[in-house]
Specification:
Elements lengths: L15 H4 L2 H18 L7 H17 L3 H7 L2 H14 L8 E5 L6 H20 L13 H23 L14 E4 H26 L3 H11 L10 H31 L9 H32 L18 H18 L2
Antiparallel strand pairs: 1-2
Helix pairs in contact: 2-8, 2-9, 2-12, 3-8, 3-12, 5-8, 6-7, 9-10, 10-11
């Protein structure tokens, strides 16, 4: 879990993406958001989504980042895809052509009740086997962890079904459906998944190829016009810099705490739920205490050095834009703008 959190982690390199100015990459991420929002207004127009995906994948290939590492960071999108598919099956509120229609179905409540109760009971019994000392070893395999998630989902659906249909007569028919899959719901499913992938990969590419202090300097430059309206731009930049700077530190300290407690016999992945909760509380309390201690020490250090947030800072990493920055900006803007009219 600790290794799969990439925020604030910089991977050094000499690629084109590493040599770009931070404000160039930050502007491109914002530009991709604007392009995708505009592209969503035109249905069945895939050119902007294809172009943005190709541009992001090209940036990843040029940067030299490991595709396997990136895959470990986007696996949760599969769950989002599954949830989006479920919502799309429920139909769309807008009027569009129906692609698939299921139902309405009128089965008797008795057989449905028996089937749902049987499947839910079997799933619950399989989940409870993880509490038995002799069968705990089976749940350590990766496939069993995925099956545990499926069993938990089945039990939740069973409880909801029984709660919603409580008091129904056995011979009374149930009305299931109709479940409509429309063109609009298919379009929403495809575009939402593409937007998640593109924006998440672009944000990873930004943080993994840019120093945190360079990213903060870029945001300071881009937000500098807000100083005319007395906005605390420098305070915001300082908070962002401290957050990005201490994320790797806290993750490293969390990993050390987990290793230390594991060496002392603590186990957060096995045992009863009460034992797991106690083990996790023994982990989070020292981590919270260490975070507050670091925050206090940092505040004392800033006061001792006479830090004042109302003074302009000298930029260390952000210099004038170079030729490579202008070339990349023109390439991305022309390609994405042309895709909107293609």
């Amino acid at each position: 879990m600790v290794k799969n959190i990439p925020l604030g982690i910089f991977y050094p390199g000499v690629s084109i993406m590493h040599r770009l100015q931070a404000r160039t990459k930050l502007f491109l991420v914002v530009w991709l958001v604007i392009i995708l929002v505009i592209a969503n207004q035109r249905q069945w127009h895939f050119a902007p989504y294809i172009v943005t995906f190709v541009l992001v994948m090209s940036g990843i290939m040029v940067s030299g980042l490991s595709l396997r590492e990136l895959w470990h960071r986007i696996k949760f999108l599969v769950i989002i895809m599954f949830a989006s598919a479920l919502f799309s099956l429920l139909g769309s509120t807008q009027k569009s052509r129906i692609v698939l229609r299921i139902g309405p179905l009128f089965p008797d409540y008795g057989p449905v009740f028996i089937c749902v109760l049987l499947v839910g009971s079997v799933s619950l019994c399989l989940l409870l086997t993880g509490l038995l000392p002799g069968l705990r070893q089976i749940w350590r395999y990766r496939i069993m962890k995925w099956l545990r998630f499926v069993f938990v989902l089945i039990v939740i659906i069973t409880v909801l079904f029984l709660g919603l249909t409580l008091g129904t007569a056995p011979n009374q028919p149930l009305v299931l459906g109709p479940f409509l899959l429309t063109e609009h719901s298919v379009w929403i499913l495809m575009t939402s998944f593409t937007v998640f992938v593109v924006l998440y990969l672009s944000s990873l590419l930004l943080t993994m190829t840019t120093l945190p202090i360079a990213l903060v300097e870029a945001m300071t430059i881009l937000l500098s016009p807000l100083r005319r309206w007395k906005w605390p731009v420098d305070d915001f930049a300082l908070m962002l810099l401290l957050a990005l700077r201490f994320i790797p530190t806290l993750l490293n300290e969390a990993e050390q705490l987990m290793n230390a407690q594991t060496a002392r016999g603590a186990d957060t992945t096995h045992g009863t739920w009460q034992e797991r909760f106690q083990s996790m509380s023994m982990f989070f309390l020292p981590l919270l205490h260490s975070s507050l201690r670091r925050a206090s020490e940092l505040a004392t250090a800033l006061d001792a050095r006479g830090y004042q947030s109302d003074e302009r800072r000298t930029l260390l990493h952000e210099t004038t834009l170079k030729g490579i920055d202008y070339c990349v900006l023109c390439l991305v803007v022309i390609a994405t703008t042309g895709a909107l009219f293609f």
